[in-house]
Specification:
single chain; about 425 residues; alpha/beta; Aspartate Aminotransferase, domain 1; Aspartate Aminotransferase, domain 2; 2 domains; 7-stranded mixed beta sheet; 4-stranded antiparallel beta sheet; 15 helices; about 15% strand; globular; disordered N terminus
Length: about 425
């Protein structure tokens, strides 16, 4: 695919108009135009998200659910509108099934401690995959260490694809939960989550899905996936940091005990006893990240305005073009070549450590990610200490890919000397 051909293919999305909505893209780094290709770590924020947060603090800053004055009413309405917006975005049956958290990490820990731990015994099993982010690995390791349960792993092949035929063999009567990443942040693999959920459901095993890398790039329908828990991270999908959510089936939330105690999650308190609020509020102790939720709603509106399908098509063409360009480099190996991939390319280069690559291309204004990407078992599987990773968002362009490739060529030349 030539740059000219690719440029024609991506014209369905007005990328230049999108770019104008992101103030940070106007800045320069080391006197070069910023080329931001670290979107799997965190996306940049469009103007409407920034203004939504600013508007809350400027115009109606107040605590939610606790006041009858006008500011509190307005803040509460905006906060709950964010919950309803996310429920619609995920096609959840009810906004009562949306629990606001700090992100995927807290969502997984909530499920681990409130849903799984009360029934987990020595000899029970938790099943995850070999490509999990640490957020969907470490909490289960900690839980197993404290209870005597065992962590089992769905293996993958050299392309970074799960060995789906082994899922049925690994699930048994001791399996208490399956945890699977929807889209791998380190490899880009889009996992067959619906198939895994079906296999698990046939055996009566609940499934938790890490959706951090999926919601900015895919149409996510929790009912179609047939999972039990779906975890969302706001800052991966153009929203603020420190806000995310757990979607969970209402029946699970009703049965789960609160994980944290404090204000807001209570119904009635005496010195002797506390009764708890209804769902989802019994899981939202203390003053929530109100501005974060409002900003997340604006991010969802941004994705709706431009269309997730159009964004995904644009990103896939950038992915294909980048893969082609990198494949021409001598001594470069792409790590993760699944047939279904999100807009992520991780690679290693002979004679060059990933951190050195990242440092050099930064001086040409190119921001990419280097390291283990909080997925060390995946790095160990491919026998690499780290990779360099480029990851795309709606605002990235073919010109930016070319700037990255040029910077990488310079880096390779410098590191060979």
């Amino acid at each position: 695919m030539t740059a000219e051909r690719a440029d024609k293919d991506v014209r369905g999305l007005d990328v230049e108009a999108i770019r104008r909505e992101f103030p940070i893209l106007q800045r320069r780094v080391h006197d070069k135009p910023l080329v931001y290709l670290d979107n799997a770590a965190t996306c940049q924020r469009p103007r409407q998200v920034i203004e939504a947060i600013d508007g809350y603090y400027r115009d109606y800053n107040a605590n939610v659910h606790r006041g009858v004055h006008q500011l509190s009413v307005e803040a509460s309405e905006a906060f709950e509108a964010a919950r309803a917006g996310l429920a619609r975005f995920l096609n959840a049956p009810s906004d009562r099934e949306i629990v606001f958290t700090r992100g995927v990490t807290e969502s997984v820990n909530l499920v681990a401690n409130s849903f799984v731990r009360p029934t987990l015994s020595a000899g029970d099993e938790i099943l995850i995959t070999h490509m999990e982010h640490h957020a969907n690995l470490v909490p289960w390791q900690m839980l197993c260490e404290h209870t005597g349960a065992t962590l089992k792993v769905i293996p993958m092949d050299g392309n970074g694809e799960l060995l789906l035929d082994q899922v049925s063999e690994l699930i048994n009567e001791r399996t208490k939960l399956v945890g699977v990443v929807h889209v791998s942040n380190a490899l880009g693999t889009v996992n067959p989550v619906a198939d895994i959920c079906q296999i698990a459901k046939d055996r009566g095993v609940p499934v938790l899905v890490d959706g951090a890398q999926a919601t900015p790039h895919l149409n996510v329908d929790v009912q179609a996936l047939n999972c039990d828990f779906y975890c969302v991270s706001g800052h991966k999908m153009y929203g603020p940091t420190g806000i995310g959510a757990l979607w969970a089936r209402a029946a699970h939330l009703e049965a789960m005990p609160p994980w944290q105690g404090g204000g807001e999650m209570i119904e009635h308190v005496t010195l002797d006893k506390t009764t708890f609020n209804e769902i989802p509020h019994k899981f939202e102790a203390g003053t929530p990240h109100i501005a974060g939720a409002i900003g997340l709603k604006a991010a969802i509106d941004f994705l709706d305005d431009w269309g997730i399908e159009a964004i995904a098509e644009h990103e896939q063409r950038l992915l294909a073009y980048t893969t082609e360009r990198l494949s021409a480099f001598e001594g470069l190996r792409i790590i993760g070549q699944a047939r279904a991939k999100g807009p992520v390319v991780s690679f290693v280069m002979e004679g060059a450590h990933a951190n050195d690559i990242g440092t050099i291309v930064d001086h040409f204004g190119v921001a990419l990610r280097t390291g283990h990407h909080c997925a060390m078992p995946a790095m160990q599987f491919f026998d690499v200490p780290a990779t360099a990773r480029v990851s795309f968002a709606a605002y990235n362009t073919l010109e930016e890919v070319e700037a990255f490739v040029a910077a990488l060529e310079r880096a390779q030349g410098m590191l060979k000397q």
